[in-house]
Amino acid sequence: MRPFAAPVSDAGRSALEQFAIDVEYYLTLTPRQLPSRYFYDALGSALFEAICRLPWYGITRAERDLLARRGQEILAHAEPVSTLVELGPGSGEKLATLIEAGLVPGRRLTVHLIDVSPAALDLASRTLAALEAPQSIDVVTHQAAYEAGLEAVARRRGTGRMLTLFLGSNIGNFDPPGADAFLRNVRAALAAGDTLLVGTDLVKPEPELQMAYDDPLGVTAAFNRNLLMRINRELGADFNINEFHHRAVWNAAESRVEMHLVAGSRQHVRIPAASLDVDFDAGDTIWTESSYKYRPDDVIAVLGRAGFRPMDQWIDEIDGFALTLVVAA
Ligand code: AVJ
Question: Among candidates 320, 151, 173, 166, which has minimal Cα distance to 259?
Answer without folding.
Answer: 173
